[in-house]
Design a protein that fits this description.
single chain; alpha/beta; seven-stranded mixed sheet; 22 helices
Length: about 650
């Protein structure tokens, strides 16, 4: 199994291990305070004449280092102990109360009665919209007594804690340059291999410790002046070069986060790049860094290697950012569900810039993954080739998107299809186009499930007039099969032949693979009976020897997923399979199950030549190679037999 894709069993085993560890958190503990103001109540102050803001509801939740604690708690950490400073005020008491309710040990949360206000982010919400924030505690001064007690508590904790997280978030919090230096020495000598630092303002003072840091903070370690408010988006190569330099700073592991591009784990010369997870809906990244910190620490405390810990942290962050208007966390059931749906975004910079393409020899075949050539040559043992059908081999259904789009738009707008205001129509149209772009290659019934949700979301069509997914599929299939039927009729009348509806040179390529003894599979999200019939009409069904699979009537089984899973389980050690497809779904599945992914960026109208939109889509999905068609199939055969032509 590809280690980038944790299984249910692995996650359950990890959670059992995390339930046994004891983790301490030293940091800047803050409180998020939400005051929900109701504008419907109109009253003015007699004394000032100004309008009174009526707070209908107030709620509080831990922030800063407190959010790290909330994430550790969500993961089921065995014991959590905290060290920090709060004020002798109602906010500090509320924070302690909440932590005690969670079972967190708070004896290390020191209450300083003078020159310290509990750090609070006051967030007035006027009719649900956040207003200008009110911050408490920006001028705090840590007393010598408080600092000495913190030092003693950290020293004492060495004997009973498995791991220590150091959080520094406030410029005037528990930390300054001098305290950071003491802490760094303590970590590197007494907590070696048992700590992780996430420092916003004093990261350079912690140089040599185990760090979780972003690209800007990593750059600052090497003397580069970086604006912390500006998110510098490094290319993949630049990020890996920077990460390699981090590995020379210490024998401790380092973790460099890259936002939507994932993160990199480094320990000495061992570097692991984990791509960003694909997220199709709206996101809220507040607190995602704390989710990463908590998961990294929990994994390392449980004995997980840095690269694997980074995979799990990446997965947890993909859950956290999808929790809107809240500081997100991730628990075991959410991790298992997300792991099943996990899709990565690979090489985003290369995907957007065709000028950076590296071609294989004198061919038009692009090498996306530079390790793929060496890995393919070492294997030389491909005995299974899986082909997507529509858009990869057959063009009979070319233009299906143009059929599905109006079906979906009409289904959402119903009787208002012709009368809806332009803004609404364009909103619906864009949502439909975005979804079709994301869902290319999946089963039709799954696309219709999404249509049911869109119809419900917009709420334009009365409930009694809505269809279920199978009903919408019938409407779509009727429209699609009218187009396909017309084309098949022209074939039967001899007006066109099979080469008019197949990708250039794909059939000779299939024959060569078949003659070499490679087992061929044809898989499709289209109904299986239709897929078989079309392959027979186009003349290549026999090459697959009955291994043609598609959607079954009344079934939601994903044929592509099932086939690749079955192949993996049946193949003996040392054998490999290759997947050819023009859609992200089959490419992602090849990645998940450890196969070689060849993206076919086909121009279906011409049947040859590169489609740049598909190229971008396939690279981001994880294709190792991109071919525009099969006219240079000799190069592809050479790849699969270890005779790479450079």
């Amino acid at each position: 199994m590809n280690t980038f894709f944790p299984t249910t069993g692995e996650i359950e085993e990890l959670m059992r291990a995390i339930a046994q560890v004891r983790i301490g958190v030293l940091g800047d503990f803050c409180l998020d305070a939400y005051f929900e103001i109701d504008s419907r109540v109109e009253e003015f102050s007699i004394e000032t004449g100004k309008r009174i803001q009526h707070v209908r509801r107030q709620r509080y939740s831990p922030g800063g280092a407190g959010n790290v604690v909330m994430n550790l708690h969500a993961l089921g950490t065995g014991a959590i102990e905290i060290f920090g400073i709060v004020g002798d005020d109602l906010f500090g008491r509320e924070m302690v109360r909440q932590f005690n309710d969670l079972g967190v040990k708070t004896h290390g949360l020191i209450s300083q009665s003078t020159e310290w206000d509990t750090a609070v982010y006051g967030k007035p919400l006027l009719d649900g919209e956040e207003q200008q924030r009110l911050d408490f505690g920006p001028w705090n001064t840590l007393s010598h007594v408080s600092w000495e007690r913190l030092q003693q508590d950290i020293t004492n904790a060495r004997e009973h804690l498995d791991f220590l997280i150091v959080n520094q978030q406030l410029p005037l919090g528990w930390c300054n340059e001098e305290r950071a230096e003491w802490m760094r020495n303590e970590l590197c000598t007494k907590w070696d291999g048992r700590h992780l630092v996430d420092a916003r303002h004093f990261v350079r003072a912690f140089r040599g410790a185990a760090l979780k840091l972003n690209q800007q903070e990593a750059s600052s370690l090497f003397g580069q002046q970086v604006d912390p408010t500006h998110n510098t988006d490094l290319s993949d190569d630049e990020a890996q070069t920077l990460a390699s330099e981090l590995g020379h700073l210490s024998t401790n592991p380092q973790f460099m986060t890259r936002g939507e591009h994932g993160l990199i784990a480094i320990q000495c010369s061992d570097l692991s790049v984990i791509p960003g997870a694909q997220i199709t809906g709206p996101i809220d990244s507040v607190g995602a860094g704390d989710t990463v910190t908590a998961m990294l620490a929990a994994c390392e405390a449980a004995g997980v290697a840095p690269a694997r810990a980074a995979v799990m942290a990446n997965l947890a962050a993909s859950i956290s950012v999808q929790k809107l208007k809240q500081t997100g966390t991730a628990n075991e059931s959410e991790l298992i569900r997300a792991a099943h749906q996990l899709a990565y975004v690979y090489h985003p910079t290369l995907a957007d810039e065709v000028r950076q393409a590296t071609l294989l020899g004198t061919s038009e075949i692009e090498v996306v993954d530079r390790n793929a050539l060496a890995n393919t040559a070492r294997s030389m043992n491909f005995n299974v080739a899986v082909f997507d059908h529509d858009g990869t081999i057959s063009t009979l259904r070319q233009g299906w998107e143009n059929v599905m789009e109006p079906v979906m738009v009409r289904s959402i707008l119903g009787e208002k299809y012709r009368t809806a205001e332009s803004n609404l129509y364009q909103q619906v149209l864009q949502r439909v186009r975005d979804y079709i772009e994301q869902s290319t290659g999946i089963q039709t019934i799954a696309q219709m499930d999404a249509l049911v949700q869109l119809v419900d979301e917009f709420g334009i069509v009365p409930p009694q007039q809505r269809l279920d997914a199978w009903g919408y599929k019938a409407v779509y299939n009727q429209a699609l099969m009218q187009m396909v039927g017309d084309r098949l009729a022209r074939l039967e009348r001899g007006e066109l032949d099979a080469t008019d509806f197949t990708m250039k040179s794909v059939v000779p390529f299939l024959r060569v693979l078949h003659d070499r003894g490679i087992l061929l599979y044809l898989v499709s999200g289209t109904d299986e009976a239709d897929t078989i019939h079309e392959a027979e009409v186009l003349g290549y069904a026999g090459l697959f020897e009955g291994r043609i699979l598609g959607a079954k009537p009344g079934s939601r089984m994903d044929a592509k997923n099932q086939v690749l899973s079955d192949i993996l389980q049946s193949m003996s050690s040392g054998k490999r399979f290759v997947v050819f497809g023009d859609g992200p779904v089959e490419v992602r599945l090849a990645r998940r199950y450890g196969g070689l992914a060849v993206g076919v960026a086909s121009n279906e109208e011409r049947r040859f030549g590169l489609n740049p939109i598909k190229r971008r889509r396939l690279i981001r999905a994880g294709a190792h190679y991109i071919t525009p068609d099969f006219t240079q199939w000799q190069y592809l055969v050479a790849l699969l037999t270890g005779q790479n032509q450079t």
